[in-house]
Design a protein that fits this description.
Blueprint: E1 6-9, E2 15-21, H1 22-29, H2 35-47, H3 49-55, E3 62-66, H4 77-83, E4 90-93, E5 97-99, H5 110-115, E6 120-122, E7 129-137, H6 141-152, E8 156-165
Parallel strand pairs: 2-8, 3-4, 3-7, 7-8
Antiparallel strand pairs: 1-2, 5-6
Length: 169
């Protein structure tokens, strides 16, 4: 299974680039809260995010931040993805964007996601330009809310990276 680059633009103008169709890696994504998931996410990150980072060129250094990289079941799947972006131009930061609302969005509707925002807290960092990192984009509510929160604290979200996009059939 080789990654491809899929693009989706949110209604707020933020571009999301995903590497896999959801249906192609769905069973792998379901391992994220298991011990096996740690190894699967490391492999997927190496095949997609790390390769992207090595090819990515920007005229200044930027940072990447994972959506809520809180450790659950001994690791954080979004931190694994974020860490793999370390390169000449990208510096991963950790523990910078935390959700106060810890409800699970898995399998929930757009209305549920929009009426139960994550209520992100941004921990201070000096860099201005950011790549947002998450594993899956479904409705875009989480990435939209996170990018809005970062913009409110004078950060510029260049784009978002996800492993998969549910809208890619």
């Amino acid at each position: 299974m080789h990654p491809s680059l899929y693009k989706r633009t949110l209604d707020n103008g933020i571009d999301i680039f995903s590497f896999y169709r959801y249906e192609d890696i769905k069973s792998l994504l379901f391992t994220k809260h298991t011990e096996l998931g740690y190894h699967i996410y490391k492999l997927l990150a190496r095949l997609s995010f790390a390769k992207f980072a090595q090819e990515f060129a920007w005229d200044e250094n930027i940072v990447s931040i994972a959506i809520d990289d809180t450790i659950k079941n001994s690791y954080s799947h979004t931190a694994i993805l974020n860490k793999s972006l370390k390169s000449k131009n990208i510096k991963p930061l950790f523990n910078r964007l935390r959700a106060q609302n810890l409800l699970s969005y898995s399998g929930k509707s757009r209305i549920f996601r929009e009426t139960n925002p994550r209520n992100f807290i941004v921990k201070q960092f000096k860099e201005k330009k950011v790549i947002l990192v998450d594993d899956i984009i479904t409705t875009g509510a989480t990435l939209r809310e996170a990018s809005k929160k970062l913009t409110q604290v004078n950060k510029e979200v260049l784009f978002c990276l996800t492993l998969s996009d549910v809208s890619r059939k």
